[in-house]
Automatic annotation (TrEMBL):
The keyword Glycosyltransferase does not apply. This is High-affinity K+ transporter 1. The chain crosses the membrane at residues 40-60, 101-121, 172-196, 216-234, 246-272, 292-320, 356-375, 395-417. Signal peptide: none annotated. Belongs to the TrkH potassium transport family. HKT (TC 2.A.38.3) subfamily.
């Protein structure tokens, strides 16, 4: 019989009762599977199941026209791309019907980092509640049998109150994240819908393409906040490059859902603490590490992160404007439209992937900078030594695995092998730089692509037609499958960012 010794008394374990053995056994077994499993495998299973469900739903739904139906590999690729918020595309977006666009909206919403982190926070809170319920019951039972409180009993009561406050703080944090998610989506989709309804040029574009305003608004906001980069139009945001107001509306969505999320979340909690004077909010700010929420950072780290993000944007903005100001992509725009469009492009270059220009026409210097930005994790920041956190020793597996650059090099080599015939016959399209951009974009879950141009073919071929699909749309099925693996790897890269440190150069 299991028991716990406390104050010299033998306390029965809650599961020691013979009538409750089956329930406790099954419950503990279930919790062991859910809570004690490696988070990497839990999230990998989550995204695989989500992708398969999305594939089934997209396959059962009819496309917009019966004249063209995507192949199964392209449908699955699209489902994975939406679930991992990568926005890599093998077919044009206007192929999908309104129902399929709504399915993709759900995939992007539940696959976004803020939503999945909220689920993780809920699981952590449930685990804390379950772990604390047994100890709290034992402590209460022990103290109730002893009239005078000793110092040890007082310490137990204090510890119990501290755990209760910690649990309430986790609950409040969950509500804040949920509220953050809802407010940004509701306000954002409302503003976009209002803008499109009031601006004739934007409304005319959607009407000509047969896209509903409400579908466009919700789809675009969910995609932008999740930093997916899908847009219901074939041309992405190129058709809206003169609608500077719409572009400026979407820029905050990109930052709020990714690179500046920790800073904005902490600022939100700080404001709520000042307004409500709730002790739970104050506890969250002072004990951010104990919350078990990786996106909750210290005030100093948030300031450094915000400064780094804005610094990267400024560097990209200066280079992009200096190199592309008179390019064909910005031709016909006014000074204000060029500034707004350039800012939109560089903000999206890191993780969102929405674009107002054709990437194939951008200068090589800007492309290389974009590749670097796509490779960097979202919370990359310049951090002086006093802010650095001590690293704990890793497992044997973590010591032998390679760094991310090594894996990306392997993926690029494999794709060059699978596409070797096209590399030889069509070198201007299938060059190593274009393949590298596609792989890094998939790894960073960005979605930027150089596309494919029939005009760059050395050998003329009848029936070759330019489309707005990504460059990967021209790859073989083997190449597409490798890029699917890259998208999964990129979506879960946070678990292996510190890998490869055992290799000394």
């Amino acid at each position: 019989m299991s028991s716990i010794i406390c104050f010299g008394r033998k306390l029965e374990h809650p599961c020691s009762n013979s009538h409750s053995k089956p329930t406790c056994f099954n419950g503990s077994r279930f919790h062991s599977l859910v809570f004690k499993a490696n988070p990497f495998w839990v999230q990998l299973s989550y995204f695989i199941v989500l992708s398969l469900l999305g594939f089934g739903a997209l396959s059962m739904s009819k496309p917009r026209t019966d004249s063209f139906r995507p192949e199964n590999i392209d449908v699955f690729f699209t489902s994975v791309s939406a679930a991992t918020v990568s926005s890599m595309s093998t077919v044009e977006m206007e192929v999908f019907s309104n129902t399929q666009l709504m399915i993709m909206t759900v995939l992007m919403l539940v696959g976004g980092e803020v939503f999945t982190s909220m689920l993780g926070l809920q699981l952590a809170r449930s685990r804390f509640k379950r772990h604390d319920s047994i100890s709290h019951e034992i402590e209460s039972d022990t103290i109730s049998h002893e009239k005078p409180r000793t110092d040890l009993e007082t310490h137990i009561i204090s510890s119990s109150n501290s755990k209760s406050l910690k649990y309430k703080a986790k609950t409040y944090l969950g509500y804040v994240v949920l509220g953050y998610l809802l407010v940004v989506h509701v306000v954002g989709s409302g503003l976009v819908s209002m803008y499109v309804s009031m601006v004739p040029s934007a409304r005319k574009i959607l009407k000509a393409k047969g896209i509903k305003i409400q579908t466009f608004s919700v789809f675009t906001i969910v995609s932008t906040f999740a930093n997916c980069g899908f847009v219901p139009t074939n041309e992405n945001m190129i058709v809206f490059k003169k609608n500077s107001g719409l572009l400026l509306m979407l820029i905050p969505q990109v930052l709020l859902g990714n690179t500046l999320y920790p800073a904005c979340l902490r600022a939100t909690i700080w404001v709520l603490n000042r307004m409500t004077k709730k002790v739970e909010f104050n506890y969250i700010l002072k004990n951010y590490k104990e919350m078990g929420y990786g996106h909750l950072l210290s005030g100093g780290r948030c300031c450094l992160l915000a400064a780094t993000v804005l610094g990267f944007v400024l560097v990209q903005f200066i280079l992009f404007c200096s190199m592309e100001w008179n390019s064909a992509g910005l031709d016909g725009l006014s000074l204000y439209q060029k500034l707004a469009g350039s800012l939109f492009e560089v903000v999206n270059s890191r993780h969102a992937g929405e674009s107002i220009v054709d990437l194939s026409g951008i200068s090589s210097a800007v492309l290389v900078l974009f590749v670097v930005m796509m490779y960097l994790p979202p919370y990359t920041s310049f951090m002086p030594s006093k802010y650095e956190e001590k690293e704990e020793g890793g497992s044997i597996l973590e010591c032998v695995v390679l760094c991310h650059l090594s894996y990306l090099a392997i993926f690029i080599i494999l794709i060059c092998i699978t596409e070797r015939h096209k590399v030889k016959e069509d070198p201007l399209n299938f060059n190593v730089l274009n393949i590298t951009i596609e792989v890094i974009s998939a790894y960073g879950n960005v979605g930027l692509s150089t596309g494919y141009s029939c005009k760059r073919r050395l050998k003329g071929e009848m029936g070759c037609a330019d489309t707005w699909a990504g460059f990967v749309g021209r790859w073989s099925n083997e190449g597409k499958f490798i890029l699917i693996i890259v998208m999964f790897f990129g979506r879960l890269k946070s678990f292996t960012l510190k890998s490869g440190k055992a290799w000394k150069l």
